[in-house]
Design goal:
Blueprint: E1 27-30, E2 36-39, E3 46-50, E4 53-56, E5 60-63, E6 69-73, E7 76-77, H1 81-87, H2 91-95, H3 100-110, H4 120-130, H5 138-145, H6 165-174, H7 186-199, H8 209-217
Antiparallel strand pairs: 1-2, 2-3, 3-4, 5-6, 6-7
Helix pairs in contact: 3-4, 3-5, 3-7, 4-5, 6-7, 6-8, 7-8
Length: about 230
């Protein structure tokens, strides 16, 4: 997937004839062209609705008309704080697979090579994962933690490990010391890093599809370097 094609135009998957998710409690956002991006709370499937015609969204990074960004992977949205607030108390927590979101959380916060293994957020993420077997406690907390700034994506590189494409993107956009953490592109870059971390589970040196997106993002004008 060419990330460059996703700014500013939104690409949609056409002609697949896939069934659409229920939109009763869906989160929605407005695209620059006025169409609606909708995400189902139970499946996280993302569709674009324009003049009554809905189509699944392409994987990639999509900008909304308010300047915020939604990342779609495997047809599903990476939850944002706004989505979690919309879904609070909805079917999301009830339908999630036990332990799955907690494993994602640990990979994102601790890093695939444990680069942040000694940090407090990593220890907290592991505690939530260990509690995932307790119904209504661990898993629900992990789902919320995925969009909680108290559980940041690990950007540290473990001793002896090489920086990844997404690690380099985060350093370029957010600054080596995080001084540009409030820039519009920093959070999307960190989300891409989190996705890369998940994809490299078990093999910290693996080449991933998200890593390729991070390489392309280096030349994308949205991901401006930190001055």
């Amino acid at each position: 997937m060419n990330i460059l094609a996703l700014f500013p135009r939104t690409l949609v998957l056409a002609g697949l004839g896939l069934s659409l998710p229920s939109l009763a409690d869906a989160w929605s956002g407005t695209m620059p062209d006025g169409s609606q991006l909708r995400v189902d709370p139970s499946t996280r499937r993302a569709v674009r609705d324009q003049e009554g015609a809905a189509r699944p969204m392409w994987d990639g990074v999509h900008r909304l008309d308010d300047g915020s960004v939604v990342i779609i992977r495997d047809g599903t949205a990476v939850p944002t704080k706004q989505m979690m607030e919309t879904w609070q108390g909805g079917p999301e927590a009830a339908t999630a697979q036990p332990g799955g979101e907690c494993e994602r959380l640990v990979q994102r916060v601790c890093g695939p090579d444990d680069g942040c293994g000694q940090a407090a957020p990593c220890a907290s993420a592991r505690k939530l994962r260990d509690a995932a077997g307790t119904a209504g406690i661990g898993q629900d907390a992990c789902i919320q933690a995925l969009s909680d700034p108290a559980y940041p994506v690990c950007t540290a590189v473990a001793p002896g490990a090489k920086a990844t494409d997404c690690t380099r993107l985060v350093e370029r956009v957010c600054g080596a010391d995080g001084r540009c953490a409030q820039s519009p592109a920093c959070d999307p870059a960190r989300q891409l890093l989190g996705m890369e971390s998940e994809e490299r589970t078990g093999d910290p040196r693996a080449i991933t599809a998200t890593g390729d997106q991070c390489r392309q993002a280096m030349t994308n004008p949205f991901f401006q370097p930190c001055p």
